[in-house]
Amino acid sequence: MSAAAPELDRDAFIRAHTRLLPVPHAPEIALHVAEEATELWQKTEDELAVIGLPPPFWAFAWAGGQALARHLLDDTDIVAGRRVLDFASGSGLVAIAAAKAGAAQVEACDIDAFAAAAIGINAAANGVTVAARCNDLIGRDEGWDVICAGDVCYERDMAERVIGWLSALSARGATVLIGDPGRSYLPKAGLAMVATYEVPVTRALEDAEIKRSSVWRLASE
Counting CB atoms within 10 angstroms of each CB, which of 2, 8, 57, 159 has the fewest? Predict the structure, then answer.
């Protein structure tokens, strides 16, 4: 019988390896982010690979999420009084923006337990309530009014699964918004662009310091 994986204090790890900083394109929101992207990535791989941690996507404000957050903060009617899901939330950025914009209820899901911890820490830092869920909700419909998904089209299989699920939610009447800076597997059909921003990003993770990022509405069939 193999030994159990060591239990980590996720909140303590996040606080030890990040700083609370304003989001470049949505400075109304502050997130616990990694100042040195490659250093934290390497630390996660080297020190914590023994328990199979995924890369720390939760420690960065990705371009698509920044675009979505900006859009919700600028057009609060999209979520005001509505029930919102931020899918593959990472840091919780978009969920926090939805809460600040007046959503009645906000959930943020991610399959990484560290992301779920980061969502709670970041929501508290911004004085909002977000229900963090550490599970895969693809295929489920729990009656959300608005579903937001930032930076989910970077891998073919993932994009196909997510878009198929989101299309079904859109078809039954939900508002589905996707934030994307031109990832390879964003679908070419069924999307209507609603906003575009020039988003500052971390050069260590992207191919430029500014990424043109758009918010797309998934059209119902």
Answer: 2
Q: Which residues contact 5 (CB under 8 A, 6 or more apart)?
A: 50, 51, 52
Sign for the pseudo-dihedral over CA of 36, 148, 154, 25 = negative
Q: 63-82 burial, b if ≥16 CB within 10 A, otherwise e?
A: bbbbbbbbbbbeeeebbeeb
Q: For residue range 93-124, what is the model confidence (pLDDT) as tens digits?
A: 999 999 999 999 999 999 999 999 999 999 99
pTM for this entry: 0.90
Three-state SS at 77: helix
Distance, CA of 39 to chain centre: 21
On average, the pLDDT of the chain sits at 89
